[in-house]
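ok trying again, last paste got cut off:
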Amino acid sequence: MPAILSEARVDELSASANALEMVLDVGGEPLPKILRLAGTAEPVILFGPEGGIEADEMKLLESHGWRRSRLASTTLRFETAGIAAVAVCRAMNTEPGN
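nice, full thing came through this time. structure:
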């Protein structure tokens, strides 16, 4: 099962050394494309509030190695994005937290 972590500030985020850190953003690369390159890395998916992640937060995430990834060419609602991202990971057999 995927792990759901507590709310945190962007500068507090960190994942394991074997993590593929991705932040959902409509301007990112397609999630399946990034997952195919993951190898044995564990996918860690961050998605922000309604309205998206602030530009300065996105820059900070990218400077720490997080990759922008997208599920579709349109923005999904907050409550749908996480479920859809886990479904894609499971379909590709790279479930977060497994």
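cool. The two ends are 6 Å apart (CA to CA). The helical segments are 31-36, 55-63, 78-91.
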